Every structure is written in C-alpha cells, then in structure tokens.
Automatic annotation (TrEMBL):
UniProt KW keywords: ATP-binding, DNA-binding, Nucleotide-binding, Transcription, Transcription regulation
Entry superkingdom: Bacteria
Positions of region (Disordered): 1-20, 359-387
Low complexity: bias regions: 371-387
Native source species: Candidatus Methylocalor cossyra
Protein name as catalogued: Sigma54-dependent transcriptional activator SfnR
InterPro entries, alphabetized: AAA+_ATPase, AAA_lid_NorR, Homeodomain-like_sf, HTH_Fis, P-loop_NTPase, Sigma_54_int, Sigma_54_int_dom_ATP-bd_1, Sigma_54_int_dom_ATP-bd_2
Entry keyword annotation includes Transcription regulation: yes
Stored SMART domains: AAA
PROSITE patterns associated with the record: SIGMA54_INTERACT_1, SIGMA54_INTERACT_2, SIGMA54_INTERACT_3, SIGMA54_INTERACT_4
Segments forming domain Sigma-54 factor interaction: 39-268
C-alpha cells in the first residue's frame, strides 16, 4: 500500500441487503490496487466483526487492527473513520514498511527547511496532515525502535516535533495501527516496545483470514464478478457450480486480494460468460493439515545430530542456516524472506548483518552480541535441547 490521503473513502453498500458489502466508494483499477478493495459480512464471524466496528468507531480510542495481508485492514480503518465524529476530517494512510528508516521520521513528523541534505523547504508530516482526522499506520510492527519511542511520545503528549525544529506542534489525531505480525511475540523478542503495544492495544480488531470465514467467499466472488464484469463489458458473468466448489475448496493464502485478482484474471481468459474452474488457474486446493511426523521428522533428526556433535554456538549455526536457506528460496528478496519467516524486514536485516549475509557487510558489523563471536551461553542451551 502506498501512502495516500482520504481520496478513496469507504461506503457500506446497501447495508440492509444480505450480505452488506463494504467497499471503496471509488474503487481503483486492479493494476493500481495493492489492497483488499471489498469486505462482505455474510459469514457469522464477519457479522460479529461489523458489530465490533460499529461499537468502537464512535469513540476516540486508539485502535489496533490485526490480520494477514489482504484481509482488508485499511478498509476497516477507513470505515471506523467514516463512522466516527471525525468523519468530516482528513484520513491519512501510511505503510510504515514502505519507507526507509532514514525517511520515515520526516514523513511522520515533518521537517524544517535545511534540517538535512535535500530539505529545501519545510514540510508537514502525516500527523499534521491528518490533524482533526484519523491517521492509519499500516505494518507498525516494522517501525524501528527509535521511531517507536517518538511515536509513543506523540500519542501521549498530542504534539509532534519536526526534524530540525525546536518547538512542538499540537496535533489532534486519532491513530489506527495495523499489523500482520504477533506484537506480543515481538515485545517478548525485544522488537517492539511494550509501552507502545499497550498504548495501541486499547481496542483490538482481529481480522480472520478468508479461509476461516468460508461464508464470505462466494458473496465476495459475486461482488468482484459484477465489478470487473461491468468494466470488461460482460452482460451477466456467472460462476458455474464446479467453479463455486473450486473457490470454496481453495485455501486463499492471499485472502481477499488474491480472490479479487483471481476473478479479474478469470474474466480476461474466459471464452464465455460462465466462469469454469480451469479459468482460475488456482495454485492448488485446500491442503490437508501436515502431520507432525511428516513435516518435522527430518528437521528434528538433523537438529538431534547437531546436538550430539555439540558444535560451538549451536543456536547461531542453526539460525544462520535458516536465514541463508530462506534467502536462497526467496531469491534474496528481503521482503518475501521476512514474510516467509514471519519477522519484520528490520529484524531480518539486523540478523543478516550479524551473520555477514548483507552485501558488503562482514559478520557482526552491525554491533550487538548475537553473532557467533559474542560471549553467549548458546552451548548450554544446546545441551538443554538434548536433555
């Protein structure tokens, strides 16, 4: 998701119909969209979600939206804004993982002229731009720790200090954060500040993945059929019974966004106006849950052999091997590797630096004591894992 202001608002289309549909009032073309563009509330889980949104929206509380990529976190944030007393104010949306660490402070809080090289004029940050409105911070789990402390101060003091400024500027902004990582685990691992987590965790909205609310799959598919069918000139595009069964059987790892893309692609290749299973080119049906024996037996055997040999720095050896393997699997795409390992990109780059996996970096040049040469008691931990 790219940074954006209030230009696509949301609307609950025909709330009295069954099921109600939440969508951008001016949906963008698929080529520009990198977010889920619609939510339906047919499945019982989704109906409870809508009720929760309607309960917390009128308050001014900070909200944390948790869910996998493509589940519609920004849609929920925009709908909370639309139902709040701030509905006539601006709505700002910023992806915290889309900006480099050196730029994100300036983007969030603004900067003064001459604050750094290239700062040719003063600039308001996202907090000032969203004053008297709502600011949606997506992927807050990827914020650097230094920025987390500054963000916490803004939430507590209701004022921002621009880069290069000496005076604070008061702001009146409701903040909605979103993440696809477990922030409690990030707090325990030292990647996220506990006080900031508690500040965000006033009202939590948990978005369930599409595979766990199957009652929404076909209503969403029909919504996207109508949307893209009208754009492509179909009089009445429909799903065959077999296609409906295939959509229900699929696991949808990309959630609503993947379903939207699949419908659009199927309409482009379908020879008629009835979509068949072969028009979707789905990557596979819902896989059975892997058994413990099938999925981890070989891994456990390899770790046990390492424990028997008791090499020095066993944990670092295993971690570095996991990082290298994941990087090779993802063709050294750091964003995809971080997503595969369920960690933030900042954490990934930190660990890569420790093990010399960053281009031009030697092991341990990032500092810290977690690289193999650091005096840690990982050998004792290795003995524990074998006991």
């Amino acid at each position: 998701m790219e940074p954006s202001h209030s230009d696509p608002s949301t609307e609950l289309l025909d709330k009295d119909q069954h099921p109600p549909v939440l969508s951008f009032s001016e949906p963008r073309s698929l080529t520009l969209s990198v977010r889920a563009s619609a939510l339906v509330f047919e499945d019982p889980v989704s109906r409870q979600l809508l009720k929760q949104i309607e309960r917390i929206a009128p308050s001014d509380a900070t909200v944390l939206i948790v869910g996998e990529t493509g589940t519609g976190k920004e849609l929920v944030a925009r709908h909370i804004h639309a139902l709040s007393a701030r509905r006539n104010g601006p709505f700002g949306a910023l992806n915290c993982a889309a900006l480099t660490e050196s730029l994100i402070e300036s983007e969030l809080f603004g900067h003064e002229k001459g604050a750094f090289t290239g700062a040719l004029s003063s600039k308001d940050g996202w907090f000032e731009s969203a004053n008297n409105g709502t600011l949606f911070l997506d992927e807050i789990g990827d914020l650097p720790l230094g920025l987390q402390a500054k963000l916490l101060r803004v939430l507590q003091e209701r004022e921002v200090v621009k880069v290069g400024a000496r005076r604070a500027t008061p702001v009146n902004v409701r903040v909605i954060g979103a993440t696809n990582v477990n922030l409690e685990e990030a707090v325990e691992a030292g990647r996220f500040r506990a006080d900031l987590y508690y500040r965000f965790n006033v009202a939590t909205v948990q978005l369930v993945p599409l595979r766990d609310r199957p009652g929404d799959i076909l209503p969403l598919a029909r919504h996207f059929l109508k949307l893209y069918g009208d754009r492509l000139g179909y009089k009445e595009a429909k799903l065959t019974t077999e296609a409906e069964q295939a959509l229900l059987a699929y696991n949808w790892p990309g959630n609503i966004r993947e379903l939207e893309n699949a419908i659009h692609r199927a309409l482009l290749v379908c020879p008629g106006d009835h979509l068949r299973p072969e028009d979707f080119k789905l990557t596979g049906l819902r896989p059975p849950a892997p058994s413990m024996t099938a999925s981890t037996a070989s891994l456990e055997h390899a770790v046990r052999q390492l424990c028997e040999r008791a090499p020095p720095r066993l944990f670092e050896l295993i971690e570095a091997t996991v990082l290298r393997t994941a990087l090779d699997f993802c063709e050294h795409n750091q964003v995809q590797t971080a997503r595969l390992l369920a960690i933030s990109r900042n954490v990934l780059r930190h660990r890569m630096g420790l093990y010399g996996l960053l281009p031009g970096h030697r092991p341990g040049t990032n500092g810290g004591g977690n690289h193999p040469s650091a005096p840690r008691s990982s050998h004792a931990s290795a003995q524990g894992c074998c006991d």
